[in-house]
Amino acid sequence: MPLETVSVIGGGAWGTALAQAAAMAGRSVSLVARDAAQVDEINARHTNGRYLGDQALHASIRASTAASGADFIILAVPAQSSRAALGDIDPALLAGRPVILSAKGLETGTLDRQSEILADMAPDAVPFVLSGPSFAADVAAGRPTAVTLAGDDAEATSALAAALAGPSFRPYAADDRIGVEVAGALKNVYALACGAVEGAELGASARSALIARAYAEMARMVSAMGGSATTLTGLAGLGDLTLTCTSVQSRNYQFGMALGRGETVEAILASGAKLAEGVATTPVADALARSLHVEAPLIAAVQAVLSRKADIATVVAGLMSRPLKRED
Description:
Elements: E1 5-9, H1 13-24, E2 28-32, H2 36-45, H3 49-52, E3 62-64, E4 72-75, H4 82-87, H5 91-94, E5 98-101, H6 114-121, E6 126-131, H7 136-140, E7 145-151, H8 154-164, E8 169-174, H9 177-199, H10 204-224, H11 235-244, H12 251-260, H13 265-270, H14 277-291, H15 297-306, H16 312-320
Parallel strand pairs: 1-2, 1-4, 2-3, 4-5, 5-6, 7-8
Antiparallel strand pairs: 6-7
Helix pairs in contact: 9-10, 9-11, 9-12, 9-14, 9-15, 14-15, 15-16
């Protein structure tokens, strides 16, 4: 199957960055955005000022307000918008086509992973998951970035990774689609926690300990949900967890910092901050952990802070008073 044309669904920062990466890899790219003015700007000025400032976009990227046929599709909308975005696309355009899912989150209400949403909305589409340590600004600017692309068919995944590989964007093919997907969603929850530690001025030692314990907790969750814990040793696990939990470029980390300073979710949003993916994913992850009988005290702690059932000091005191045991 040819992999020359790609339709990127989502005109935000991440969708535009992935369109840029695909164009730099030599693919013919159609970027689908809802805002007609944004479409006009991309086509006329080759910028997407609202999301990427004055970053120049590849001249071959063409924007439109509706999806059209392509050899493969990249879905790059927020995790909670995936179902609606897929509902706007004719399922015939997706049937038998590779669909790369790039959102990192679990769906509120259904508790579904992104590939499960795709299976509901376009059962004949072929799912792939893109995840790993990457910021949109870096990808769009052509800074070196390595990510994981996971799919169920090894040959097809390798071919798709090669189609997206460019001078600065390197996708590594993998076969643990579920593990990559779960890790991508959960790292946002832990980024909220690490940001809260920073915002509460608890110190770098506390943040480092949290990342290590988050890694262990994530491994339990990934295994319980059908993935492989060994996936976490790579880009989609340790790589993405480390980046998101240590950088102020991370929206989840920034949001967590505000929580650590004692601000409520409502106050943070009222200040103009955008809603971080981890805020919606945390209660879903907490519910999944409970249903799977997985010990996940860090996820539960973040949920307690978000739901205003406990403040940072109380949560930390509770975690530090847990019974001592051997490290797993």
